[in-house]
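Summary for the steering committee. The consortium agreed at its last meeting that each partner would contribute one worked example illustrating the joint modelling workflow. Our contribution is presented below. We chose a case with several input lines so that the handling of multiple components could be demonstrated. No manual editing was applied between input and output; the record is shown as generated.
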Amino acid sequence: MQTVEKKPFFDQLMNGTNFDADSLSALQKVTLRAVVMSFIFFGLVALEGMIMRMVQTGPANPLPEMFSHPDHYFSIMTVHPIVGIFGSTYQLVFAAFMFLVPYLTKKPLYSVKLANFVWLCITIGTALAWIAGFIWQYAPLYTLYWPLPADTEQFSIVGGFVFVVGVALIMVGTLGFIYNIYATIFARVGVHKNKTTKELLISGFGIDGLMNLIHKLTGKPPYSKEPALSLPVVAIFRGTVDTFLDAIVILGAGILVLVYLIADAGGLSWDVHAVDSLLYKNYFWWGLDLVADGLVLIYVAGSWYLLATIITGQKLFMENVARAALLLELFVSWMVWSHHLLADQPQPEMMKLVSGEMVTAFELLTQGLALFITLVTLWKARPLKMTPELAYLLGGLVGFGLAVPAGIIQADMGLNRVLHNTQWISFAHFHIALIVGLYMTLYSALYVLWPLVTNNTKLFSKKLTWAHFWLYLIGGVGMGAFAGMAGLDGMLRRHLYVDGEFGGLMILAAIFGSMVLIAWFLFLYNIVMSVGLKGLIGIFKPANNDIASYGIEEEPEPAPAAVKA
Amino acid sequence: MFQTSIELLKFHWMAYTIYALLIISVIAWFGYNLGRKEKARSWVRIPFYGYIAFLVAGGVGHHIFTYNAIPWVAEDIMRHDIKADREYDISIERHKWKLPEEQMVANMGEKVRFNVRSRDLTYGFGLFRKDGTMVMQMQVVPKHDNDILWTFHECGTFDLTSTEYAGPRQYEKHTGEDLMLVKDALVVHCNDKFASK
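What follows is the complete predicted structure of the assembly.
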């Protein structure tokens, strides 16, 4: 990572270091557009999080009283995960992968227009969902427990309509991303010119890795010496399968809610209990769980593998095992949803035992393997320079090292009885997984990809990068720890406490949470001072060249005359 | 091994804190040694298959441990075959509990079955100690039978509230007061025989 001589403040703010937006290709521009939107949404979600933390500290909090009103509070809580998971995380992951697949396969992205459609859809969709909360205070929370989203006694029909349309747009954008990724992976150009769809599919699902392991154990020659797809592309392919299923389920649930809202607006009073609540919960959680237990874990494992190989410049340790583990995760991620329903007494006990407890426990194995493989790959390449990208990668490993066991603990019938719906699961598990585990991995990817995506733009300040790292790591872990402890003391999530019942721990959580917010400001300042405001605007202007790949462009077919000659 | 949920939660707090400090230390140690030229001396050398065995043992052993150490797990699975000492039928509609008695009562050591039915939304049925810690809870899925059998190994007066979000109407519009909170909903009388256990 290069740093740069400082210019006068205003000059630096306007012009950045050496960033030239006009030199960017169409692929680089579309990647950066999504990254910019992602970090704007990250700031919004961090602010929302801090508002909620401060409300929970009790009456002494300095916020205006309206933030403690239930309508207002729960509308913030409803849009918080939508903005965070879809507006920020999805955008960042999609941006990285729409750049990485062409980069890793040396093929052009199938469609830059579609990529632009994707970030626009997700941005507008997230904004609509947020507006539904802000203006109409539509607040069913992301759980969408039937029939709560269609409860027109508590929520306005217009608010519900705008919210569902927003979420639907996000899902349409997601389907666009999936189509773009698959069309790129399966395009028979460049290195995949002579590959069949079957070969690409076998590799995409990690079957070749499993076959190689079986062949090794049985003493046969390797099934495949050169897999059709590199390991990070396999992870992207695999994770995208779950993204597809998840998008279909959420879109389906949204349409169902919309049907009821439209009927209600038309004066029809349809019985919401025509849809069985438990069946709906199973359907909804099966799909939603694919975001967490399918998509995140697989994408993250793939990102770790990619980052470890790029940082060390060496081959991944136990690559066949890693490929086979991604195949195993396919079955695990589809069969674990019932851990969300362990506290539902009408849920069949066998479902709780097999899906909720036993299969879920396998995530310890799949994620533990990814952690082990990444660590050994790094260890074998010692000594390594502690660069920010390496530090962020280690931070990501810490995050999942903390969050995965925290989730496994909750996915137990004994502990779930006293942990379900508490702040333990919100903070010790998924906030740590997202804020520390996923985001630190993504920051590592961002710093690795930064020179490639920005044509070697120098970063404004290395000191700010390190300040961001430490504030973010300590703030994220601290907030998760103290708010998680409040959960052990009985503090519920999705519950409003206005008298400071858990005030002590909430003040500590707010202090550490504010470190995350400050870290985001430092990061934003560093990036803006690197690309400059002019450069930032330039990212959103049309690209001068239409190149859609980073690597070897598709070989042009020889002209007929040349063939004859 | 554990009699009450508070004992379990205290143990869990301790065990997970130790684990968290351990994993942070391991990665920190690892990161420190990644940059060193001289060979790092590790305290333990973990072979791959040993590590896999550890993960499997951790995942499966965790459930075996809790099944044997936490009294309500087996009781919950077998609850339909267990005769309760007391039974309470409770219903909820429009964010209001309909309790069978103003104050439910039980004796320590008794098995109490709570049958809770929602007529509209999804709620949660949660009992809390006076210090705010949770005794136990379950989800209440509308139009389904939601029952929980609980043996009270502690005495005291417990509050009841919904542990699941069912819309903002659970709270007073301006003050944010929890309208589903029923203070002193259940009294469990002490019983020396069980207390001595």
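Chain B touches chain A through 78 residues (CB under 8 Å). Chain B has a mean pLDDT of 92.
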